[in-house]
Amino acid sequence: MRVKCVICDTIQSIDDNLPLAKKLRNRPIHTYMCENCHDRIKENTVARLETGNFRFYRTSPQMDKEF
């Protein structure tokens, strides 16, 4: 299956039997992101988290108060 990265527009080929390929075929809302773009976004997010100026909400604030 040929897929196109939504960020850098590179076209790659993935195996048709992978769960990701099935997800992309059956649910058009899902998009593909290549490993280079995924790693770059991950590194930038980690760098922003380390600065302390970026708030990353993993849970809702209401749940934090209850526990």
Can you describe this structure in just a few lines?
The protein is mainly alpha-helical.
Which features would summarize this protein structure in a list?
67 residues; mainly alpha; 9% strand; elongated
* Number of domain units: 1
Q: Calculate the terminal CA-CA distance, rounded to whole Å.
A: 46 Å
Major sheet: size, sense and barrel closure? 2 strands, antiparallel
Q: Beta-sheet strand percentage?
A: 5-15%
Q: What assembly state would you assign to the polypeptide chains in this entry?
A: single chain
Kindly state the mean pLDDT as a whole number? 84
How many helical elements? 3
Structural class: mainly alpha
Approximate shape:
elongated
N-to-C series of helices and strands: EEHHH
Spatial strand order of the main sheet: 1-2
What is the alpha-carbon Rg in Å? 17 Å
- The low-pLDDT segments are none
Could you tell me the number of beta strands? 2
Helix content: 40-55%
InterPro entries: DUF2197
Pfam family, one: DUF2197
How does this structure look, described?
The chain is mostly helical. It has one domain (2-55). 46% of the residues lie in helices and 9% in strands. It is built from 3 helices and 2 strands. The chain has helices at residues 19-26, 35-51, 61-66; strands spanning 2-4, 11-13. The protein has a two-stranded antiparallel ribbon. The protein is elongated and about 40 Å long. The mean pLDDT is 84.
What is this structure's SSE topology?
Layout: E1 2-4, E2 11-13, H1 19-26, H2 35-51, H3 61-66
Antiparallel strand pairs: 1-2
